Amino acid sequence: MKKIPCSNCRGGQFVVSHPKYYHYTDSGLDNVYLLGGVELYTCDACGQASYSIYDIEGLHRELALILIQKLGPLNSKEFRYLRSYLEFSAKDFSAEIDKTPKTISEWETGKSPIPGVVDHLIRRMVATNKKMGNYQVRELSEKLDNPKKIGRIEASMKAKVWTVPNTYLRQSHSHY
Ligand SMILES: [Zn+2]
Questions:
Q1: How remote is the CA of residue 138 from the centroid of ligand 1, in Å?
Q2: What distance in Å separates the CA atoms of residue 142 and residue 129, rounded to the nearest whole number?
Q3: Spacing, Cα 11 to ligand 1 middle (Å)
Q4: If you measure from the C-alpha of residue 6 to the centroid of ligand 1, how many angstroms do you get, rounded to a whole number?
Q5: How many whole angstroms from 45 Cα to the centroid of ligand 1?
Q6: What is the pLDDT of residue 112?
Q7: 47 — phi, psi (to 5°)?
Q8: What is the pTM (predicted TM-score) of this model?
Q9: How far is the CA of 46 from the centre of ligand 1 (A)?
Q10: d(C-alpha 176, C-alpha 169), whole Å
């Protein structure tokens, strides 16, 4: 097993491990779990721990793609995730949509609901982001009108590429 001297204490060493299942709370979302693709460093003396994620940009893009396809309104954390995915500070985003930073803060802490038009807009901004491929913007209003709760999001590292199955985004029944 590979060992690295601990940067936090004297004498300890970081032990490198590869968790099979990692709850990625630093994403800012509560329901993201990584299946592979994570290196965990834990000090064998003081317990100090850190981690690194393989192709974190690719992972963040896949998660954003899942969120913009969500059926029903974005919740406060999903909105905040997409806002930071777009690399907007809360201040810059508020200026972009002619709102105050306080209003953005209220949306992101769940104090007030995110207006449908803003939900629609941020999905569109993510969808038209160069990195995003050919997501169909016109499907958006249909998605917003047909709520479905997203459960656990599991991202798998397969052949060095992050994949997130989107099967749970489909509706269980159709009214067409
Ligand atoms: Zn240590």
A1: 52
A2: 21
A3: 7
A4: 5
A5: 5
A6: 96
A7: 85, 0
A8: 0.77
A9: 4
A10: 17
20 Cα: distance to centroid of ligand 1 (angstroms): 23
Look at residue 130 in the predicted model and tell me its pLDDT.
57
**What is the 43 CA–ligand 1 centroid distance (Å)?**
5
User: What residues of the chain score a pLDDT lower than 70?
Assistant: 1-2, 130-146, 167-176
* Helix segments in 18-176, DSSP class H: 56-68, 76-85, 90-96, 101-108, 116-127, 140-144
The pLDDT value recorded for residue 175 is: 44
- CA nearest to 32, candidates 169, 163, 152: 152
Cα of 2 vs centre of ligand 1, distance in Å, is 15
Residue 161 near residue 56, CB atoms below 8 Å: no
pLDDT of residue 174: 42
Token pair, residue 108, equals 């992101």
How much is the pLDDT for 7? Answer: 85
Q: According to the model, what pLDDT value does residue 169 have?
A: 62
Q: What is the pLDDT of residue 176?
A: 38
Give the closest residue to 50 by CA, choosing from 12, 81, 80. Answer: 12
42 Cα to the center of ligand 1, angstroms: 8
